Amino acid sequence: MNTGKNRIQMKDSALDAVTKMVDGNFGAMEALMLLLQSDHVDPDNVLGGIGVILFLDTLQIYGTDIYVLYSDICGKDIVKMIAVLRAVQMGWSSAPLLKEACSRQDYAGRELIPVDSLYIKVKRELPNFDTK
Q: Which of 62, 66, 71, 111 is deepest in the core (most CB within 10 A)?
């Protein structure tokens, strides 16, 4: 999926990374700031929230599409957003399908991504995920 045109570079701070990813979309900024505070959700992800942001960059999901994923598809539930992205990493959902769902600003992306079942599958396979 990635064409090698990632926005985030090794020298970037977390603030630089967020700025590059959000394209001025305040909803996307909210989601990424929550990701940066979410290390406890998926402790098996060694990079924590910044790792999730790097994965969004790899998928080339930016700006409004990040907000659509967070708000429209995952119902503003950052844990479910992380679960969906983890499911893509684990091969249980397709990266192109997720990218397509995120590009739909009419809530139609909800029908493409089975958020709740992906959350359950991630939780079942990763016992440390979302232990609250």
A: 66
